[in-house]
Write a structure and sequence with these properties.
Elements (H helix, E strand, L loop, with lengths): L1 E4 L2 E4 L6 H17 L6 E5 L2 E8 L2 E5 L1 H8 L13 E3 L2 E2 L13 H11 L20 H5 L25 H10 L5 E6 L5 E8 L26 E6 L4 E6 L3 E6 L2 E4 L6
Antiparallel strand pairs: 1-2, 3-4, 4-5, 5-6, 6-7, 8-9, 8-12, 9-10, 10-11, 12-13
Length: about 260
Amino acid sequence: MNQKTPFGMLSIPSQTPQSRIDAILRALEWCESLLSATSWTKRSEENGISLLRTINHRTINVYPLEAAKMDLGLETRFAANHLPVQIDDESVCVRAVKRKPQPLHTDMVAGMILLLGGVDFNPAAVPETMHSILTPDQRHALPTAPRRQRYVPGQPSTSGRIFLAEDRILNLLNEHGHDVFHVQFEKRDGTLRNMTARLEIQKPSDGHEAADEQPPRPYNPADYHLMPVIDLHLNQHRNMATDRVTWMVIGDRILSTESAED
């Protein structure tokens, strides 16, 4: 199906949900309506219609119809998942922050038009890959990004949950070294993980390799209150936090704290 838009004809795949088509067309109309209230102008080019403006002697072009093609899963001349933006005829890498649901590229282009539409704009809101349009004074005045704190493994939990004593967990694992067990523990990101697992097999003393023996690690997991295990549902090597166990079923033992969740 071909659909007329303010930026040219758009070929829409037959299986596209109507709700998505409507959202894309609304965003294109938004891009068109912004022209009357901003400093952008429309220009016809060999590759289609672009919106253009100049900031600090740098020419910026955005291509709303190309964004619509991306939203429809069609091939474009721009890199996948990037906004169709150019500075002095060179494409720049501008992408949305990773999140779900992913915003429409056409909506993000409209947002770019609005962001850079006036004489005055917030330099701090300009994507880092487009900082070349800023003056030296504007770049110098940009706020310094907060330094990412170095992750220190094995730090105590700050969630407020109650955990089983680590020495008790280690003793049970030692007593039932070949048994399958069920466990819930707090991951380092603060979320709870349920796992059906068994301990990894230690490397045999004869030097022969076992199919599921411990893979080489650049650190000692025990130093960080971790125990290498095999996740039996995933059939993959994982680490279990031995200092953050909320419940455990192993052998004939069932242990739980009030922080355990179903």
